[in-house]
Amino acid sequence: MANEIVKLINEQLDDLVDRYKSVQNLPKIGRTLSETISIFMKIVEMNHNIDSASFKEIVISDYRLSRNTVNTILPTLERVNILMIIDDTVRLTNMSKKYLENNDIAYICRGYLEDHFGFLEMLLLIAESKYDRISKCFNEWVKLYEKGIGERNINTHKSQFNKIYRYLVDLNLVIKREYLIINDDLLTRCFRTDVF
């Protein structure tokens, strides 16, 4: 199965051309990343035709977050194809509607994998080697980043690397056991599910 996963990841990497260089943090208001994202989706679902200012006010008042923190939520969720803003109206994308219908985390995972550099690269490194700790693949991951995007500060690399790993574990794409392993079933569903 490992060879099939490596092949699947490489196929996806070949198809992706324009990805964001950095993943942004979302404030953690749920127990997991997917629960936090689900909360934001439900706010939009329950408040049809909500404008961005009203969305932000609901989040500020219900979850006691600062305005600066809340200002990053919509752009971050737009980047991963969860929410979209059209004429200042916040709407659910097809992927988020399907997630709410099926409760399949593959729809959330797909946005992160397709739209940000570093996720698929980390999965590829894990699939190709038996790492007992994620830090062992850091240097290889940096080489892939610098080859694909360009150089940047080592502290920025560390921050992004750790954030991407945390998100992969939180989204259940990477499972920590004796060795790090990829959730093959979930990863396959991410790219085999119809989002339209």
Question: What does this protein look like?
Answer:
With 196 residues, the chain is mostly helical. It folds into two domains: 99 residues; 70 residues, Winged helix-like DNA-binding domain superfamily/Winged helix DNA-binding domain (Arc Repressor Mutant, subunit A, Orthogonal Bundle). It is built from eleven helices and four strands; from the N terminus they run H-H-H-H-H-E-E-H-H-H-H-H-E-E-H. A two-stranded antiparallel sheet has the order 1-2. Strands 3-4 form a two-stranded antiparallel ribbon. Helix 1 packs parallel to helix 11 and helix 7 packs across helix 11. The mean pLDDT is 91.
Sum this structure up briefly.
The chain has 196 residues and is mainly alpha-helical. It is built from eleven helices and four strands, in the order H-H-H-H-H-E-E-H-H-H-H-H-E-E-H.
Tags for this model:
two-stranded antiparallel ribbon; 196 residues; Arc Repressor Mutant, subunit A; mainly alpha; two-stranded antiparallel sheet
Largest beta sheet: strand ordering = 1-2
Topology, number of strands = 4
Q: Helix and strand string, N-terminal first? A: HHHHHEEHHHHHEEH
Low-confidence stretches: none
What is the secondary structure topology, with strand pairs?
Blueprint: H1 2-15, H2 33-46, H3 52-63, H4 67-70, H5 73-79, E1 83-86, E2 89-92, H6 94-102, H7 106-115, H8 119-128, H9 138-148, H10 154-170, E3 174-176, E4 180-182, H11 184-192
Antiparallel strand pairs: 1-2, 3-4
Helix pairs in contact: 1-8, 1-11, 6-7, 7-11
